[in-house]
Specification:
Helix content: over 70%
Shape: globular
Keywords: Membrane, Transmembrane, Transmembrane helix
Protein name: Putative membrane protein
Radius of gyration: 13 Å
Order of helices and strands: HHHH
Organism: Streptomyces himastatinicus ATCC 53653
Structural class: mainly alpha
Number of helices: 4
Number of domains: 1
Strand content: under 5%
Largest sheet: none
Distance between the termini: 15 Å
Length: 101
Amino acid sequence: MAGVPAGLVAAGGLIGGYGVARWTKRRPLGGVALAAAGAVAAKGWRDKAGNGTAAALSGLYVAAFAGSHPLAKKVGAWPSVFGVAGGVAAASWVLADRRGE
C-alpha cells in the first residue's frame, strides 16, 4: 500500500463493494470486496496514526456502509455510496493520511 492513501482504499472499497454486489447480483461478493479494502485501509490507518485512530476510522467505515442504505432511499443508491465514500476519505485525510506527507 506504499504511497496509496488509506482513505482512497476505503472509498474504493465502499464504491467497489457496492458495484460488485450490484453488477454480479451477489451481495456476498460485494461484501468480500468491502471487507478486503477495509482491512487494507485499517492497516494504513494504524501505520500512520496508531491503533485508536485506526479503530475510529474503521468504525466510521462500517457506519458509512450501514448508513448508505437508508440514505439511498432518499437520494438514490449511487449518490449515497459516493457521498459516504467521500466522507470516509475526507475523515481519513484529516486524521491519518496527511501525516504521510
